[in-house]
Specification:
The protein has about 250 residues and is mainly α. The protein has 10 helices and 4 strands. The strands form 2 sheets. The protein has a two-stranded antiparallel sheet with strand order 1-2. Strands 3-4 form a two-stranded antiparallel ribbon. A hairpin with a 2-residue loop joins strand 1 and strand 2. Helix 2 crosses helix 5, helix 6 runs antiparallel to helix 7 and helix 8 packs antiparallel against helix 9. The protein binds FE2/S2 (inorganic) cluster (FES).
Length: about 250
């Protein structure tokens, strides 16, 4: 057990008994999150180059009042709150951005300074992060729209067709669906609070669902990153094609 002088020494910001480069995982999170927030904010307010042919950017789906009959700003501003709230309150992202942006705490077993007591998320305002489960319900509706967009992306004026953009949109919605299906809140929904699956109604299918969600949940961080990249790259592709900078390739 550490004596009191050791503990005082560890209380200095960044002091630790760890020997690995604990700070290294902070850097990509800091860079990628900052870049994504800047890009997504710019795109949300840009209000143009969000559709081309059968393609619609995921940042603008569902597309509401594109002709500005009653909404003066970009249509994306109306819908981004749902997916943004889902990501911001996600258990994995919380860990990542607490560490990357405010270093509160910087990492496991690393002191954040004597003046900064860590109380977790037990008091205001961080206790509000518990709304995550409600964002999960909201985002499920968004996924339905995005699946619809992905199907429509294969419907061209001359019938069924496959373009690079359609394939990108399809990969994107698959990754977004896996990311949502690996959510901790969903895992709790299907199997939480239960000590015995065989003692409850629909115990067998619930156990199967819980096992499936658990398998995805074990890689939740991976799905969080992949779906973050895919949603940004899908939007970027459609923007470039819509602006005439890139030419979409029709494969079929
Ligand atoms: S915990 Fe990450 S999406 Fe729910």
């Amino acid at each position: 057990m550490a004596d009191s002088s050791t503990l005082r020494g560890l209380a200095r910001f960044g002091s630790t008994q760890r020997h690995d480069a604990w700070w290294i995982e902070i850097i990509p999170a800091l860079l990628v999150f900052t870049a994504f927030v800047i890009y997504a904010t710019w795109r949300a307010f840009e209000g143009r180059f969000y559709e081309w042919g059968p393609y619609l950017s995921p940042f603008y789906s569902p597309l509401i009042d594109p002709n500005h009959h009653w909404w003066p700003l970009s249509p994306a501003v109306l819908v981004l709150g749902g997916p943004a709230g889902f990501r911001v309150t996600c258990y994995y992202y919380r860990k990542a951005y607490y560490r990357a942006f405010v270093m509160h705490p910087p990492a496991c077993g690393v002191a954040e300074g004597e003046h900064r007591g860590y109380v977790g998320e037990t008091s205001f305002p961080l206790i509000l992060q518990n709304v995550h489960r409600y964002f999960f319900y909201i985002v499920t509706i968004f996924l339905c729209f995005l699946w619809h967009d992905a199907v429509v992306a294969f419907r061209w004026p001359d019938g069924f067709g496959i373009g690079v953009g359609g394939l990108i949109m399809l990969v994107n919605i698959i990754l977004l669906t896996i990311y949502s299906a690996s959510c901790h809140s969903l895992r709790h929904l299907v199997g939480g609070k239960l000590d015995c699956f065989s003692c409850v109604t629909f115990g067998k299918p619930r156990r199967a669902a819980w096992r499936g969600v658990t398998a995805l949940n074990e890689h939740h961080m991976l799905w969080a990153w992949l779906s973050l990249f895919s949603v940004a790259l899908t939007d970027l592709y459609i923007r470039l094609v819509s602006a005439g900078i890139l030419k979409d390739i029709r494969l079929l």
